[in-house]
Design a protein that fits this description.
The structure is a homodimer of 127-residue chains. Helices cover 49% and strands 12% of the residues of chain A. Chain A has a 3-stranded antiparallel beta sheet. In chain A, a hairpin with a 2-residue loop joins strand 2 and strand 3. The longest helix of chain A has 14 residues. The first copy, chain A, has 6 helices and 3 strands, in the order H-H-H-E-H-H-E-E-H. Chain A is mainly alpha-helical. The interface between A and B is large, with 57 and 57 residues. The structure holds a DNA duplex (30 and 30 nucleotides).
Chain lengths: 127, 127
DNA sequence: CGGTTAGATTGATGAACTTCGATATAGAAA
DNA sequence: TTTCTATATCGAAGTTCATCAATCTAACCG
């Protein structure tokens, strides 16, 4: 005999009738509040930026670089990727709010946005 | 006049000749150690599991559920997704080491793997 | 001015991903 | 056994993504 806290409502409407509540009933609508669709999309967009090995290495190299910044030419070679591809990945990291871009002369320097990592871990801890 | 710490080696070979070292030279190979390709792939696979809004909501709902666990039927309705799709997302979260699956009777209960969130934030902080 | 160089943008290609409907499996009840 | 139910798996369709070659832009130099 299996104990089950409910779950007989596959394909019923949202309101809970007394009958439903009395039966073997189902699906406690959860005790704690959960993130809504919009929040989920916002957070997923950040994790999407982190969901690529080359982008993680970019963050790692920038973080470990002297002065906390690196230009594209510092990043192309260790990744064995073409310059357009590296630029593309960097743009994704900038758009996600993880990297900061500063142009000095012909060079573009990338650095970690202060607090970005902490803010991102917060997105996980507050799920 | 712009100060630049180097970067004239676009399209040269790997070894650094004395000439290269003497010139305006480039690309300090970075001061700190960075994660290697394999580590980057491992970490990216976890973030890939988090890079979908519906999977973030699954984690959120499971975390907020009474008893810390939820079955598939608890999860299908709030996501407005078909049951096969929810099962598919849950499998990805289990494979990433974020969710634990336990079958009791006909039902499958999913719960957060203890310490999984903390371990994941560590993947970011130790970049 | 023209020439050179760092970096960004565009367009195309192939791979990976999300979703669904249909089907399969496994357990419980009759 | 047969039937029903919860979940998993399969196969296909449509979308998104990573990568590259080619091109464009902007800044420097002569």
């Amino acid at each position: 005999m299996y104990v089950h806290n409910g779950c007989m409502n596959s394909g019923r409407t949202l309101e809970l009738t007394p009958v439903d509540a009395a039966t073997d009933a189902c699906c406690e609508p959860s005790g704690q509040p959960t993130i809504d669709t919009y929040e989920a999309q916002l957070r997923a967009s950040v994790f999407k930026a982190l969901a690529d090995p080359n982008r993680l290495r970019l963050l790692s190299i920038v973080k470990g670089s002297e002065g906390g910044e690196a230009c594209v030419c510092d990043l192309t070679e260790p990744l064995s990727l073409g310059q357009p591809t590296v630029s593309h990945h960097l743009k994704i990291l900038v758009d996600a709010g993880l990297l900061h871009r500063e142009k000095r002369g012909t060079w573009a320097y990338y650095s970690l946005v202060p607090g970005a990592i902490e803010r991102t871990t917060g997105l996980l801890e507050s799920l």
